[in-house]
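Q: What would this complex look like in 3D?
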Amino acid sequence: MPALDSTNDLYAEMRGIGAAARRAAALMAQAPAERKTAALQAAAAEIRARRQEILAANAQDLAEAGQHGLSPAMVDRLMLDDKRIDAMAAGLDDVAALPDPVGKVLARWTRPNGLEIARVSVPLGVIGIIYESRPNVTADAGGLSLRAGNAAILRGGSESFHSSRAIAAAVRRGLEQAGLPANAVQLVPTRDRAAVGMMLTLTEFIDIIVPRGGRSLIERVQRESRMPVIAHLEGVCHVYVDRAAELDKARRIVVNAKMRRTGVCGAAETLLVDRAVAQQYLPPILADLHGAGCEIRGDAAVQALDAQAVPASEADWSAEYLDAILAVGIVDGVDAAIEHINRYGSHHTDAIVTEDKATAERFLAEVDSAIVLQNASTQFADGGEFGMGAEIGISTGRLPPRGPVGAEQLVSYKYVVRGNGQVRP
Amino acid sequence: MPALDSTNDLYAEMRGIGAAARRAAALMAQAPAERKTAALQAAAAEIRARRQEILAANAQDLAEAGQHGLSPAMVDRLMLDDKRIDAMAAGLDDVAALPDPVGKVLARWTRPNGLEIARVSVPLGVIGIIYESRPNVTADAGGLSLRAGNAAILRGGSESFHSSRAIAAAVRRGLEQAGLPANAVQLVPTRDRAAVGMMLTLTEFIDIIVPRGGRSLIERVQRESRMPVIAHLEGVCHVYVDRAAELDKARRIVVNAKMRRTGVCGAAETLLVDRAVAQQYLPPILADLHGAGCEIRGDAAVQALDAQAVPASEADWSAEYLDAILAVGIVDGVDAAIEHINRYGSHHTDAIVTEDKATAERFLAEVDSAIVLQNASTQFADGGEFGMGAEIGISTGRLPPRGPVGAEQLVSYKYVVRGNGQVRP
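A: Here is my prediction, written as structure tokens for the whole assembly.
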């Protein structure tokens, strides 16, 4: 039974990777900040130094992609060049420059009986990261995990297999050069899809699963994982233009939020405009959008103002187009906007344009999303733009970490209690 | 098909409860601190005022328990008297006195482009709490949830059904008196076991599940829940007596950690003693334990020092006895103790007895548990003892909340970003 044998072999191999990660995590948890910084800098240097090796591996991936008839968009995601390699190395240097999130005293107090209690940040442990085609995630995710003192088991997309292997090798050399365990960053060394299912059940060795990719991957991981999942579901992001908005700001923000890049999770998918100013504000805003090549799907009131608008169906209000399409609705003020967003949105990122402080505070407090903005584009929903150096994703879960997940979010805490012989009465 | 009809009816009822909780959660999230404080105080007053009602409901539960032949321990857990009712009301007053954990600015910074970013604490949303026989959990869990601005759906044990209903009614009257929605605390109004399974899949309405009870309940919830679970697994807690321990402290701490109450999760289950002092320290420590009625299960070295010791099997090192039994082992110093605890323990609560600062720091840093103590009893593993007023449990998960879960841990956060027209380049 060769199939069963090979499944058993793979399972044994995955357990071996898990056990090695667990051992590495114990060492990483005690590693001083400077050593982790040195490892990240060495990894960046290795990526620059091994540029030719990485490009050759990428060429192999691209050749295979050609044979499998990958779409041009997929090929673009997969492709590495000098600029992308430099960006990957610079990203690791940025993460090296971040403050170490481990060992911070988050709170400290003394009890009446003299016990001194401190809540201290500690690494999460072993993180399983499952992602799709972009090979740079191997460096980004490995680097963030390393900064926070974790061990990562990386399962990249099968299209980027060779590239990811070359990048992971560079990061591992960086770890070794700094005297840290190379196994703090491991790449699953097979394209066998069964490995993903095994990762999701290795509760003994993996503490947290982070999926990064399309909806079907995330949903599969949420369904099958036996560990907690830090998941990034869809971004159905809104811009609400209030009666107290400055029109110029509204025009700039709406076009940027929708059209700067349509394929990112922070791209706006719905525009809501206050009925009080719709007649005045909507025509110039929609003209900008049409001018930028955006399709408008509107309710009846919008269609009355815009001959080019397509009728919006109920499904449009919760659609994540990731394309040059925008659903546009007219609402009765901020309360109706909040209600619409909390009902149809995905609790990711939503913005209000207004100069009225009370209206803004209302929106910022009552819209139940990971990120809420006043007078700024939803496309700022990004760990780099938040100053986190990089991000492993934007968590749409309710429990922390919520929103952009950088190194500072890849930690947990423990309670350290110091006494002098106290016993409990 | 009456069975199918009744399942459909129950499902519709559970969805109705979920939708009501979601509406209440939106109101609770915006409730000012003083109003939540007033609701908690009013709930405490209602519990005192409705004492006879609650006792009558409890008598009904006790009568049914008699018919079902519940064990004396179960009956004791179920039973309410004046003292327990006073304690329940006092617990709500304690929670009322806690600082409000919502709306705290956890971090705040400004980006070079002028965006002002704040990380602000917000309620979790709707919490489903599934627990077993103790009726006081209805007040404790409902109160903590309320303090943190959440809505709770409580599913109590079927044995305590009438008592929990009377207690929940008192808490709901407290909410109403303070002008808050009564549906911020709802009790599932049926003993039908199918309701639990339904709660675990109501992802549209419930954000977090908190199981509180025995291992089989927790495991079922972890297996079936489609939402994140804040779970309290077992407490295989250790005391390690180091060569630099003061014998008197060690004796007091070991006996207290094991015998103060054997049925609590913070009770010590394994004692490890440094080989360097075993000959000198173990006999008096074991004499204390025997004197307190504790059975000793030891390795060969322990048996050589204690004629009464029973041989320990491999299973004893990871056993949660919750009884007057202690596994005792001799280890080669703090490193071996750390290795043993991380291997066999449950990452709950572990203590070292030592006067050596370096050894203590080593243990506190490297033992990978939610709570680590120096020179204090493991029985301090308790939200009340930590100064949290009360606790909904002790989380043994890796992600926050880890350790005792009080009101301050039943919140999440969001990012509030204020701009003046910024768009992303």
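A: To summarize the key features: The mean pLDDT of chain B is 94. The longest strand of chain B covers residues 411-422.
Q: Very helpful, thank you.
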